[in-house]
Amino acid sequence: MTGQEIMELSARYVMNTYGRIPLAPVKGAGARLWDADGKEYLDFVAGIAVCALGHAHPAVAQAVAEQARRLMHVSNLYYIEPQARLAQLLAENSCGDRVFFCNSGAEANEAAIKLARKYAKLHYGPEKYEIITALKSFHGRTLATVTATGQPKYQKGFEPLPPGFKYVPFNDLAALEAAAGPHTCAVLLEPVQGEGGVHPAQSDYLKGVQDLCRRRGLLLIFDEVQCGLGRTGRLFAYEYYGVEPDIFTLAKALGNGFPIGAMVAKEEVAAAFSPGDHASTFGGNPLACTAALATLEYMLENGVVENAARVGAYFKERLLELAGRFPFVREVRGLGLLLGMELAIEGAPIVTRCRERGLLLNCVDGRILRFLPPLIIGTEEVDQAAGILKEVFREALERR
User: Fold this and answer.
1) Which H or E run contains 189?
2) Which CATH topology does 58-301 take?
């Protein structure tokens, strides 16, 4: 099918829940995508931080193909070898001890919310249920996780929202301390806010939050769905801050494109769940866990996280060079290969003109370019992307 045919078919039969870009990718390799009409693109979106090893990575593709021929799915009524091995790999390389598997980041955050409330009720009584989150956060699209999300634009039209959530400004420890009350059971934060505009936590903020949680008997939950698994140049973003959460969530990059999510908790907290408290039909099935195993093993054994740190620093320097040349660039921020560039002009036209030149970018909050290339990206590809961005910026400056 041609790209136009794909778009027309989708417009006719697929529910209208996305503002889609007129592009129909049909093939990928590494950091490259090709659309249905054969045009090549340099992909600095990577499925929104999903394809950490790039598109069609051989190790993942081979593992998935072999597992699909052997066993795709069985119920969690039984023991599943790839699930057990993946849980072990995550626990041995993180601060967590136990893992619950699901299918997405929203489901992982739902599980974290339920576990926090169950733990608090067991240890402190039925009045403990409230969870504090940050303004500009993003935690998912289910009713609970969209309520946890500190952005009213995602909640509009879905009221009444579930009770039990409170919001405070990000990086404001005093506001968090003032908000914590007799019903509070947990604090849920992204170490780096992605959808909210690429805002990293300040160096002393998360340590202060951890101290507050310990003093008040609150659980600390980190949403690392976007910023985890090497994206910031560390395997987990919390490692930057010398802080260990009681619970953290993963998804996106975990399966390199295969849907899987995980909620990881310390032993004492995980013990609050007992059989029947939470479940997922597809969560942790053999095929999904095999994809995640292949992804995580390759990441750990082939310097992918280190590459994200090195190339991320190089990319940030290139973006700062552009900021020095073009007065409409307000700020460059982020960690590793989760980078944002805030503009004083609308970002959508920049994204469109970059796409026309073969570079795929993402814009959030109207004026913030978000860069999420595969973690295997090299400096030559960064130079190519920066060159295209420079051309587009020059044209934008001439039109002002």
Assistant:
1) strand 184-189
2) Aspartate Aminotransferase; domain 2 (3.40.640)
- pLDDT by residue (tens digit) across 234-286? 999 999 999 999 999 999 999 999 999 999 999 999 999 999 999 999 999 99
What is the per-residue pLDDT across 84-105, written as a single tens digit (0 to 9) for each? 999 999 999 999 999 999 999 9
Confidence (pTM): 0.97
Neighbour count for residue 93 (Cβ, 10 Å): 13
**Which is catalytic among the residues 136, 170, 222, 223?**
223
The active-site residue out of 128, 136, 252, 316 is: 252
Average pLDDT of every residue of the chain: 97
Could you confirm whether 97 is annotated as catalytic? no
Element (DSSP H or E) covering residue 325: helix 304-325
- What is the domain partition of the chain in residue ranges? 58-301
Q: Is 200 helix (H, G, I), strand (E, B) or coil?
A: strand
Catalytic residue among 100, 138, 248, 315: 138
Clarify whether 365 is annotated catalytic: no
Q: Which residues contact 39 (CB under 8 A, 6 or more apart)?
A: 358
What's the CA angle centered on 24, arms 20 and 27, to 5 degrees?
140
315 noted as active-site residue: no
